[in-house]
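Here we describe the complex-level prediction in full. Unlike the single-chain runs in Section 2.1, the two entities below were treated as one system.
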Amino acid sequence: MIRYTREQMATRVARDIPEGAYVNLGIGLPTMVANFLPTEREIFLHSENGLLGMGPTPAPGFEDPDLINAGKQPVTLLTGGAYFHHADSFAMMRGGHLDICVLGAFQVSVGGDLANWHTGEPDAIPAVGGAMDLAIGAKNVYVMMDHLTKSGESKIVARCTYPVTGLSCVDRIYTDLAVIDITSGGLRVVEIVGGLTFDELQRMTGVPLARSSAAAQ
Amino acid sequence: MIDKTVRTAAAAVSDVRDGASIMIGGFGTAGIPSELIDALIDQGARDLTIVNNNAGNGEIGLAALLKAKRVHKIICSFPRQTDSHVFDALYRAGEIELELVPQGNLAERIRAAGAGIGAFFTPTGYGTLLAAGKETRVIDGRNYVLEHPIHADFALIKAERGDRWGNLVYRKTARNFGPIMASAAKCSIVQVREIVPLGTLDPEVIVTPGIFVQRVVAIDNAE
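The structure predicted for the assembly as a whole is:
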């Protein structure tokens, strides 16, 4: 089966980020979006640990241990960037100042509930970070994830069975098979990977899908 | 004359008692006050409650404090890391208590303590496991969870430069929890790379006014 590659998914998300947007990219797959942001657009990347105007990875040898991102990786600061403390950082997130956050997920429900912080395994050591604040705070929450689990189950579900991160908070899902909007009228498919029909996508997805007016098929 | 500077890290932490609650600044390794933590380990206080974003990395710093069995409870947002094996082992053996707090709640609860706020409502975590048992309220049609401040006896913080009045500036993302922990703890202890004469720090750019700081010690790392 043809799927979008990780790079194609990241490029696709990046295309939807307009100039001037204040954006937080969650750790993991979403960080790849930074590499595909159109260079002619000025986009402000926020990192939960206290920087705005995050720049690309520094050249080897130029890493500064005091300049890291949420994933603890060395980064740079763009000219015009700023540093601030944690209460201010989360005020930006919780206070609705971020235009877009891009997060990974275990599951997304038809109602836009997000599960991405806990596998539900009783033995798992829990950790949450800023995921819950981002989920409810950003004006637009985009999820980047595989369409199916390794065992072929849909990660878009009627109700999340994993512990939730936030309720009714996801706006759009980018998977390796499709781009899907979450609306009050249900899930609307915006795009499908070439070679896959709408009916095939519907069969693989556990919940009712509708074509958006913009869908190609 | 007021001089909040202290000669050594050992002197700075000498009065930490068993059972104390201690906020420790830092996000990952950026801004971790390693030398103050080492002095705390040497000093021997135990049954500590620690507040930090993480639960230690590798075998040094906060991980070393945990490994030395000094910590009874940790309040943090992200204990699990690729190298959090010291915490992981203690947690699985039931030898350390964990209060998991969403990072924004951690920051705001600390800020609230320093700001004299009794409690506050936040939308974060509503409907999740981490809001279990907590009071909720609908305000203007939105769901909120009631959260309470986190106070502490001490804060160990790393800043870049400080003066004898306790004014502080930080360095890049090493700032993180420093300013809010400084306000929330009864006794804020700060290690700085350099202590500068009064007036060197431009009043327009002082990030932590000295009112929030009790002790400043100069520790200049070679790295």
